[in-house]
Amino acid sequence: MPHASQPPSSGPMQLARRLLLPWLALTLVVGAFYHWSGLNIQTFRAESGLFIAWAYSGDLAHFVDAHIYLSYSGHYTPLYFAAELLQARLFSTNEHLWFWRQMLLLGLLGTALASLTRTTLEALGNRRGLAQIAGYLLALVFLLQPAIAEMVTWPFMAAQFLCMTCAAIGLRHLIRASAFQDERALFWAMAWSYASMHFLGVGFVVSITTLFSCCVLMWSQRLAPRHWRTICIFAVLTALHGVMMTRGVPTQELAIPPSTLVKRFGALYMGLVHGGLQSLWASGRFRWPDVEAFPVDAVYGLALLAALLATAIAMAQRSRTQSRPSLMLASIVVGFPALALALFSALPVLRTKGTLDPHSLDGYLFGTRYLIFATFFAYLPISALVGMVARKLGKPMLVPLLILSLGSAAGTAAFIRITIPQIWPYLLTPSDVLWANVVKEAATQQKAQGHVKDRPLSELDHEFNPPMHMFTPLIERDLGCSKCIHIESTP
After folding, report:
1. pTM of the shown model
2. Whole-number Å distance between alpha carbons of 409 and 138
3. Are 486 and 450 in contact (CB under 8 A)?
4. Residue 254, class by beta-carbon neighbours within 10 Å (0-12 exposed, 13-18 middle, 19+ buried)?
5. Are 426 and 44 a contacting pair, CB within 8 Å?
6. Which H or E run includes 331?
7. What gap in Å lies between CA 323 and CA 380, rounded to an integer?
8. In this predicted model, what pLDDT tens digit does every residue of 429-484 receive, in sequence order?
9. DSSP states of 405-448
């Protein structure tokens, strides 16, 4: 396997060519597609609406207590939460700004995925031009899928996009370190993987898996001992951040036998493998979990995990004895997603150890924001499979990749135009229109009866039904007055 050539100097023009221009191009392509498809943004959904309300409330004490000093549902990401609050203040209720913010994040994620695929294909012996085109086509397959379309509609899912972006860049450097024996890439692999923790708690899984992979890589390739210091530093950072993730989260006593925990873990692992692959081109109606099948699913899940890890370990051992970097690359391609998905499965299982209800794990088996990580972990082995086929076919391999990307676009357009109106009809009305109606209603009631009746704004958020009084400052801002709206609670 040839060693990687030294990267060119990263001047302004080089940076623009390698990152900014591809990012902008992908943003425009993906943005034009989703705009043409008619996708609307749920500006006020759940935390997104809460952040907008906080941004205009003038009282941020509760936000600081719940999102800065303590973890939020196991996610300790104060920098991300602060940035999201700032954007809520800047973008307010403007759906177009939120839409293009989401597109910028998708373009950034796509750029990172394309770079990961390109590096993987080059490591497998493919030419740079072929690897680059294949990388962007495969990234489009990932970006143009119903699961991503659904997540884009919820601005708060920016955390998932940013977490996966950091993880993809970290994986890209891990591939460089294993296949091209680029020792400097070890540092960046750990740094970017740790950075993913600042956007989502799932980053803990990414960082731990990367640290373990770096340890195996150092052992397999007999790298210089000085790298152990770097591993220890990032291990401490990851551990400290992991402790902060538990701060403020109530602890639960074990209410089920350990054997039940193992059963749930194996079943969830197998379910995520199935659901993650299905979510690439699913219609949005995922299979409802069957808890009665957990004992059978657990056997398959545990057996699959054991087989994948055993394969990865065997290839790392063979790479050490035969000094073959390509085998270490194969070990990471198999072992990283297997271990990462195992840790990802373990977190919710431990989180629900205090409940007897096996349905407490249902959301992880059909919720898009969870399944997307199972899909993401499968992206590396899929890239490697494409690379192995491309090494045999050469440029003709771009034809099936182009067909897949066009198929993803067509399927996702059908999902937005046909399926969404059937299962989520409330997404058909732009949030700008919904909000304008709320403001008009408040102004009409205030003028007619001297006050506004408080009511749940179900049209803005069908899940949490936020009360109208939560957005009083925002309504007054749009009406151009101060303290002019008086909300009266209904009995």
Report:
1. 0.93
2. 12
3. yes
4. exposed
5. no
6. helix 325-351
7. 23
8. 999 999 999 999 999 999 998 899 999 999 999 888 999 999 999 999 999 988 88
9. HHHHHHHHHHIIIIIHHHH-GGGGS-HHHHHHHHHHHHHHHHHH
